[in-house]
Amino acid sequence: MASNASTVASLPIDTSGRLPFSPALLGITQLLLFISLLLPPSIPTSTRKWLFLPIFLITVHLIFRTTSGDVLTDVGIGPVLAGQCGQALDYILLCDPRTAFKLKTKGKGKGKGDDGGPGDSFISRLKWSTRLLLSPRGIGWTHEPPANVLPPRLHASRFQFVFSKVYEALTCLLIESVAYIFNATNPALTTTSTSIKDYPVYLQVPAVIGIAAAAYARINIGHALLSAFAVGLGVSQPDEWPSLFGGVKEMWCIGKFWSRTWHHLLRRTITSTSNALFPRTNTKSTPLYTFARLTAAFFTSAIIHISGDYMLMGHLSSGAFVFFMLQPFGIAFERVVMSAFGFDFGKGKGKEVRPGVLGRYLGYVWVLAWFVVTAPIMVDTMVHAGVFVHRSGNANLGAGVVDWLVDSGRVGV
C-alpha cells in the first residue's frame, strides 16, 4: 500500500486560532444540567430555563473554538457535546422532568415521595437526578421506549451482571482492534485524496462494515463499563441496563436498522424535538405528516453529527448532514415497496409482522447496499482528514498489530 504522507500533510483541516479543548468546561455543562434536575419544586420552571443559556454558549464555544489535537477524538467528541446540549434543550426548555418523568415504582405503597417523582428532600432529589442522567434511554422510567423496541434485558445477579459487562467490554475492545487493522490497511479509507466510492465494491463493503464495527465497539465499551459500575455500586439494577444495540438479524430494512439494531442514546432527544415541531395527534396521521415527523427526527441527528465534522475539519462539512437527511427517504421508499407487495407492518393486529426467511435475506442485502451507497457521503470527510490513517504508537491494540505488520514488512501504510 502506498504511503499517505504527502496527502496527510495537505489535509483540509483548519486549526488556526482554535484553543485546546477544555474538559473543565465540559464538566461545567454537565454540572449545570444536573443542577437543573436537582432544583427543588419551589423553583419555578421559568427561572430554571435560564440554565440552558450557559450550557448552549459553552457547547458552541467547545465545538467551534476548540480542538483536542487528535482527529479521532474530535470527530467523536463533537456529537457528544451537541447531543448533551440537545438533552439539555429537552430537559430544560421543552419539558420539566421534575413533573414529566416518573420512575416506575416497584413498591406497593405510593406515599409521599413514592410516586416516581424526585421527592422533596435533597437526598431523594439527588438520587432521582443521578438515576435519570444515568439512563439517557429512560430505562426504568415511564418514558422508556416500547418493550418491542428495546433489546432483551439481562436477568442476572449483581455479580453475574458485572462479570458479563466486563467481558462484553473486553470483547468490544477486541472487535475495535480488529476493525482498526482492517480499516488501517484498506486503501479506500487511507488514501486521503480520494472517495470510498472511487474503489471497487470489494473494498467499499469492508470499509463500511469496518467503520460500523469500530463505532459499535467504541460506543458499547463505554456503556458496558458504565453499567457494570452503576450496578456494582448498587445505584441501579441489572434489568435497568438492556443491551445498547439490538441484534443484527433485526436489520432487514433501513427503518428496523435505526429503530432496533443501532443504539438509542439519542432517541429521547430526537423524538422530543420531533414532537415539538410536529406534535402527535389523536387522529390517524397522514403519510405526509408521518414523513415530516421522521424527517424532523433525522434532522436533529444530522445537526448533532455535523458537530463532529466541524471539530474535525475546523469548518462546516455537509457529509454527515446529507447522510442523515437521506435516511427518511430510504425508509419511505422501502415502505412504499413493501406495501406494494402486501406487507402492512402488522398495523392494527396488535403484533408485528415479519417477512419470511427469503424476504429477510433480501432485506439484509438491501440494507447493506443502501449503506454502501450512502455511508461514504458522511465517511469521506473523515477519510480526507486522515482519521483512518495508521499512526505509530496509537493507544489501541489494533494499532500495535499494524505496527508489527509494518515493522515486519508485511504491509506498508
Explained architecture:
The chain has 413 residues and is mainly α. It contains 16 helices and 2 strands. It has a two-stranded parallel ribbon with strand order 1-2. The radius of gyration is 23 Å and the shape is globular. The protein starts with a helix and ends in a 6-residue tail after the last helix. The relative contact order is 0.13. The N terminus is likely disordered.
Nutshell version of this structure?
60% of the residues lie in helices and 1% in strands. The chain is mainly α and 413 residues long.
Q: What descriptors fit this protein?
A:
mainly alpha; globular; 413 residues
The Rg value, from CA coordinates, equals 23 Å
Strand content is: under 5%
Number of helices: 16
Structural class: mainly alpha
How widely separated are the two ends? 6 Å
Q: Got a strand count?
A: 2
Strand order in the sheet with the most strands = 1-2
Itemize the secondary structure elements and their pairings.
Blueprint: H1 5-9, E1 19-20, H2 23-38, H3 45-48, H4 52-65, E2 66-67, H5 71-94, H6 97-100, H7 122-133, H8 158-184, H9 187-190, H10 201-232, H11 254-261, H12 267-277, H13 287-313, H14 319-340, H15 357-384, H16 397-407
Helix pairs in contact: 2-4, 2-5, 4-5, 5-12, 5-13, 8-10, 8-16, 10-15, 12-13, 13-14, 14-15
